[in-house]
Amino acid sequence: MVMRKRLVVLTGAGISAESGIRTFRDMGGLWEDYDVMEVASIDGWKKNPQLVLEFYNQRRRQLETVHPNIAHKLLAEAEKDFNVYVVTQNVDNLHERAGSSNVLHLHGELTKARPAGCPSKVIDIGYKDINWGDTLDGFQLRPHIVWFGEEVPMLNEAVKLVQTAEIFAVIGTSLNVYPAAGLLDYAPKGCPIYVVDPNEINLWRRDVTVIKEKASVGVPKMLEMIKHA
Ligand code: OAD
């Protein structure tokens, strides 16, 4: 019997770019139009929750209109050959919609909400807006998103996955945001590491194969390389 290798993939906004979702820090990225601290931080939420709700309502409405692209689909198909674990910084659901079975969301999920005073009570809301005044258990509902200034509850689970990777791939993330970016340090020594990104990114490890392509080109290339490795 052939043992399938554990392929752990860290994805960021770049993998969803070709589905039509804007990245954050590229030219034309979301943080050109919005102040990140106003719309994506716990302080922003305390200052102007309506603005924050509207920002995520727009993201959620758009998510309903877009589709997984070839890169998401190929990672789902790769489950035929590998035990694939996706750790994503993305709050979209495109990995799941492409068919990936193991998806860990480090920064939360757009299609979920929770009462502001009750972090563990997460509910599915689909693509519905969250409005000011929508409550559960007496608390205002908020997006189930990890904001700047908040803990990343899924981090330990993600670290464990990366530590046990036999192949590690990083796709479409500028590796600027911690602690997610620090996951790169947990890939075991000797584990082949691939990076797919069309631009120069903030890389500090040398034992990395860089595929300087968009995800739609780079992901199939990477999968070919690891299938024949
Ligand atoms: P960034 O916007 O920082 O980086 C996106 C990366 O995708 C860049 O390195 C681009 O070069 C690359 N890219 C662009 N188009 C691509 C394509 N077609 N194929 C592959 N790569 C492409 O996004 P993230 O690194 O995901 O968090 O950002 C991390 C976190 O910062 C996000 O989760 C979000 C944000 O603030 C929160 O809001 C909490």
List keywords for this structure.
9 helices; Rossmann fold; globular; 31% helix; binds 2'-O-acetyl adenosine-5-diphosphoribose; 6-stranded parallel sheet; single chain; 4-stranded antiparallel sheet; alpha/beta; 229 residues
Ions, cofactors and other bound molecules: 2'-O-acetyl adenosine-5-diphosphoribose
Identify the quaternary structure here: single chain
- Assigned CATH architecture: 3-Layer(aba) Sandwich
Largest sheet: 6 strands, parallel
Shape: globular
CATH topology: Rossmann fold
CATH homologous group name: TPP-binding domain
Low-confidence stretches: none
Into which percent range does the helicity of residues fall?
Answer: 25-40%
First and last CA, distance: 18 Å
Structural write-up:
With 229 residues, this protein is of the alpha/beta class. The protein has one domain (6-227): 3-Layer(aba) Sandwich (Rossmann fold). The protein is built from nine helices and ten strands. It has helices at 13-17, 30-33, 36-39, 42-47, 49-65, 70-77, 94-98, 155-163, 215-227, and strands at 6-11, 83-88, 103-105, 108-115, 123-124, 135-136, 139-145, 167-171, 193-196, 208-211. The strands form two sheets. Strands 3-2-1-8-9-10 form a six-stranded parallel β-sheet, with helices on both faces. Helix 7 (94-98) links the parallel strand 2 (83-88) and strand 3. Helix 6 runs parallel beside helix 9. The longest helix is centred in the first third of the chain and has 17 residues, at 49-65. The protein is globular. The two termini are 18 Å apart. The site of 2'-O-acetyl adenosine-5-diphosphoribose has 28 residues, from helix 1.
